[in-house]
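Sequence only, no structure available. Ideas?
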Amino acid sequence: MIKNNEITDFISFSIVTNPPEQKVLNERIKFLLKQDASKNWNIESHTSVSDKLSFIVCRKTAVKSTK
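Reply:
I predicted one. Tokens follow.
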């Protein structure tokens, strides 16, 4: 039996136009992290040079074993 472990990143990328204050984005992220569906996900916001654009990135790494 040969095992090959591959690391796979699952990514969800949201574009937020006319974003609210960072405090509001942080509250939304805290809410998302409490949900069962987002268990083991890394969720963070990123700002751009434009104050009218922000991003929320959700990332999860999974190890896949094949036989």
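The first helix runs from residue 22 to 33.
Hope that gets you unstuck.
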